[in-house]
Prior knowledge:
The protein has 167 residues and is mainly β. The chain contains one helix and nine strands; from the N terminus they run αβββββββββ.
Amino acid sequence: MKSLLAAYLLLLSALIQAQPADSAWAPMASSRHVELCLLTGYAQGRCGFGELGISANVWGSAHHPFGAAAYVATELRLDRTELIGPKIGMFLTGGFAMGAQAIYYTDGSEGALVFRPEYGLGLFKFKLTYGYNLRITNKDMPGLNSHLLNATYCFRLKRLRGDDARR
């Protein structure tokens, strides 16, 4: 009798479904965009700097939104336009944002190499970050920020190969 009951329960458990198939369910859509962009930004510390450059961006969503960019750009101090800072950098976004930049500030007579790590908030091609300029050379060069808030957005110039929208 016990073996008959065990066989019956085993057969019954094979036929039971906890979650039947739902015709309304669809797999999660994902998107991926690969773009060449115009990078624009503003950094404010003791003094304000505008930023303009070219970036290669990959962004989209799968289970979560994501973004990544690598760029070359130039910072220009807005109240002292002879102070410029060509730079290379990268950032990642996904609700949070983090990145790093290497900048060479110069006013024509002296220069300073700076490394800037950043972290903050970001989504797709936008980031709002806190950065700290770690001066590698010429630690006494005047007119540079130590701490700053930076807002950056990348405007699409061209979709590149691998972009879902090019299909």
